[in-house]
Structures are given as C-alpha cells and as structure tokens.
Design brief:
This protein is an alpha+beta fold. The protein is built from 14 helices and 4 strands. Strands 1-2-3-4 form a 4-stranded mixed β-sheet.
C-alpha cells in the first residue's frame, strides 16, 4: 500500500494534480472518440456518412511557420475581452488561411478537442464554429433554417411526442408560458422552442440537451451535448456545448444551440453516436436541409408519419 502511494506521488512531482488529471481525461476521450474515416484514405464525409468535397491543401504562401505566427497572434487577441471589429475580421481571415492546417491536425493527427481549442481558441465562439462549418464545406445560417423549418412542423412533433411522453412534455410547462405570453409572435416562438427541446425525445435519445446545473459529462464518452442555463428550458438564458470535457460555443437560444451542437461534430471530425444518428440525420435532412445529406430509414419513417397527421 505504502509503495503504491509513493509511486503515485512520484509521478506527480513534475506536474500539478490538475494537469495530471487533464492529461488522463484527454487520453480517456481519445480512446473513446469515434472518428470519421480518414480523409487521406477516403473522401471526406459528414458525421452521418455523406461524402463532401473539401481540400486540405495549404494556401499559396502558407506553411507550418506562418501558421505558428497566425496562431500566436490569434491567441493573444482571443484572450482580450472585447477585440475590436477590425481585429475580429482579421481573426476570421486568418482562420480561413489556416483552415488546411486545422483539418490536418484534426483529421490526420486526430487531435482532441482540448488541444484543438488551445491551438485555435477562436473556435470557442459559436459564430466561428458556424464559419468553420461553412469551410468544410457546409451551409450558412443553420439556426435560422432550423427555426423556420421547425416552425412548419412543430405542432406535429408535439403531437407525436405527447402520445408516448406526456410526462416529459408537461415538464416544459408550455401552457403556463403561453398564458403569460404578450402576443401571438411570442406564443409561436415558445411552441417552436418546445418542439426543439422535444426532438431528442421523439427519437428516443437522452443526454443530448441537458440543464447545465445537472449536466455532468455523459458516462462512458465525451460526445458533444448541449447544456442550457436558466429556470426553464423555454426561457433559457443561454446554452453552450460540452465536448470531451470542454465547454464552449455559448449561444442565446435553443435554435443557435442545436446548430452549434451539430457543427461541433463536423468541426472536430466526430462521428454521431449510434443511438443519436437518426436524430442528427433528421436535423441535417429535414431541418437544416443540407444538400449533402440523405435520409436514413428512421428519418424517412418519421417524415412519413408527420405527413399522415
């Protein structure tokens, strides 16, 4: 027993306890991470397995040395509380120039989330995550697309969920929120937000959207999840993404939150968990309307079910 304690103490002499456990967590998540197929062996694919066209080639005049200089400058600027607009634009320009390097370290070298964020702290911002998604390439304005398309099917989603999960629907207290809404526009927003929160329930998944105070890291993996803050999900003050123990991508509403959660998988080259693949496929096909995505069997069945209502 004494020998064991001494050995453990000896291993911690050169590093802090916090750093030691941080390394252990990164190793744990690396072993559990479900990567996509290597882009060097096959064409780049989306998290749901659909081929995308992208290039990992460095832009003219860019190399490892120039990337290090860009990284250093961006790190300094990202540490500032309020960088001015000109500096923000330069950060976006440099993120564009260094895109090839990020895809290299993420896909080829399989860099973990914490290490990628250390190299490129701008990715902690939800807007930059959306920009990165467009470069991969993807589509723009995912949150706006989500809200618009969800608005058209929100009543059907709630109808499907209420049949088998009335208890979970009742916890949203939608009726109470609607009673104090000041106008029809606010009522509609509440109804659409309720449908957004019920999407995981409709596909029988859990731990995808969690209240922040009780949002412990999911057991067994570091797969991304969305944490909301506030008294009620329908009036949440904000939300953020947690992936492999890192928290980032803060947003103001559920629509931006779900969009940020989805692009997190794309940005860090993470495969959707098998139990959640149908949920994210439904998001890609029916709500984000991604041209590169094709409906899986569960998505097709759900769309047919909605059509019959």
């Amino acid at each position: 027993m004494t020998t064991t304690i001494l050995m453990c103490t000896w291993t911690l002499t050169d590093v802090s306890v916090q750093d030691y456990w941080k390394v252990k967590l990164v190793d744990k998540f690396r072993n559990e991470r479900k990567f996509l197929v290597s882009a060097e062996k096959e064409p780049v694919k989306s998290p749901s397995g659909h081929v995308l066209s992208t290039s990992n080639d460095a832009q003219l005049g860019e190399d490892e040395h120039s990337v290090e200089k860009h990284q250093s400058w961006m790190k300094q600027e990202c540490q500032k509380k309020k960088p001015d607009q000109k500096k923000k634009k330069k950060i976006r320009d440099l993120m564009e120039l260094t895109f090839w390097h990020r895809r290299k370290v993420i896909i080829s070298e399989r860099t973990m989330v914490v290490n990628t964020l250390e190299l490129y702290p701008a990715l902690k911002d939800s807007y930059e995550l959306q920009e990165e998604f467009e470069r991969i390439p993807g589509e723009r304005a995912l949150s706006a697309s989500l809200k618009a398309n969800l608005s058209e099917m929100s009543k059907k989603i709630m109808k499907i969920v209420e049949k088998k999960n009335r208890e979970k629907v009742s916890k949203l207290n939608l009726g109470l929120h609607l009673a104090v809404a000041v106008n029809d526009s606010e009522k509609k927003d509440l109804e659409v937000a309720a449908a957004a929160f019920m999407l995981p329930v409709m596909f029988k998944t859990s731990n995808v959207i969690i209240k922040y105070e009780s949002g412990e890291q999911r057991k067994g993996d570091g797969a991304p999840c969305l944490l909301w803050k506030g008294e009620s999900p329908l009036t949440a003050e904000s939300s953020l993404v947690r992936a492999e123990g890192e928290e980032f991508g803060q947003t103001k509403n559920i629509f931006e939150g779900i969009a940020t959660l989805t692009v997190t998988y794309w940005t860090f080259d993470m495969a959707y968990p098998s139990k959640e693949n149908s949920l994210f496929n439904f998001l890609e096909v029916a709500l984000f309307k991604l041209r590169s995505s094709k409906p899986c069997r569960q998505t097709s069945n759900m769309l047919m079910k909605m059509k019959s209502l």
